[in-house]
Structure formats: C-alpha cells, structure tokens
Design goal:
2 domains, 23% helix, alpha+beta, 7-stranded mixed beta sheet
Amino acid sequence: MKHTSIWRAVAGLLLCLFAVGCSDRKSQFIGSRVQDSCDRNWPICSEIAGCLLGAESYIEGRLPGNGKFVVQLAEASTVRVHMFIEDVRATGQETSISFFETGCVDRVRESVTGQVLVGENDQLGEFAREADLFGIGDHLVSFESDTECHYTLKVDVEAKRP
C-alpha cells in the first residue's frame, strides 16, 4: 500500500512537470498576471490612459496602432516594457515606446524598425525596452507601431537603489 501512494505521488509530480514544460510561449510570458481590460480613465499629462499596469497585470491588442498606460513609481526606478508578438502579417517600418517623467516634463523614446521588433521577438521570445525614470508618482508610457500583429504587453519595475 505504501508503494502505491509513492508511485501516485511520483506520477502526479511528473504530470505537473510535463504540463509546465509543455505550456506555450505566450503562457510563459504572461505567467500569473491577470489581463487588464484597459477600460478605465486615468488622467495623466492632460491625456487619458485606459489602464494602470504593474507586476500583476498585462494587456493585449492588435497592431498597427498605438496605446498608452500609466505606471506608478514609489521611487526612482527602471521601467521595462515587454511585448510578446504573434500572428505577424507585416513587419512594418517603425515601433516606438515613449517613457514620460512625472508631469510629462521629459521623455525617453526608444524606436526600432519592424524587422528588429519581429527579430528580437523570434530570437528572445519577447521584445523589451526600458528607461530609467526618477520622479515619484504616475508616469505615462505610450507606444505605437505599424507592424501588423497581435501583441501581449507587460511591465516590470525595478527600484534603482544604491
């Protein structure tokens, strides 16, 4: 009887490992985050963003197009935007992500060609760009691309402590 319980436990563990090992790339990219419908109104920099993104959430959509969201910082931090793209129909010419300081007094803009976007996604499993932001409070992040694809986007924030 004791051996039967051990074998059941081993079989259950192997089944769990197999299920995790076989999960698709998008599921691995999302992890335990929850999709934000981006249907709220966050006033920022005389604009309205649809969502506040953080370590527990992500958004999805289609490109070409643009989007914007808010990231809240409690201290100077590196804000990293990750995009997972799929169903690419055309690489397009340009994709850009703009990171704004509090009050939109300053901006860091990262821009790449569509070929770089698609190439990094294929090679690394995602496309990511980051900026160091120093103001405390709400920060606007916007993106635009003429690449034709479906995207999943998440944000990571890492405090810049000495």
